[in-house]
Amino acid sequence: MGKRNTVQHQPNPHESTHSLKGTFIAVMLLGVFILVSWFGFYALFLSR
Predict the structure, then answer these.
(1) How far, in Å, CA of 34 to CA of 26, rounded?
(2) Average pLDDT in the 24-46 region?
């Protein structure tokens, strides 16, 4: 078998680290929307 060249990834100090704050807020808002919708439909079901 041939020789394997293994290149390890060196962290580049110029790479930016992305914040996931916006993603977290979007997921929380989506979850709240789903819960409010579910309770709204449940209340509609109970009122009929």
Answers:
(1) 12
(2) 97
Three-state DSSP class for residue 40: helix
Tokens found for residue 29? 């808002």
**Cα angle vertex 29, ends 23, 35, to 5°?**
135
Tokens 């449940």 -> residue: 42
Q: If you average pLDDT over every residue of the chain, what do you get?
A: 86
For residue 26, what pLDDT is reported?
A: 97
At residue 15, the 3 state secondary structure works out as coil
**How many Å is the maximal CA-CA distance in the chain?**
74
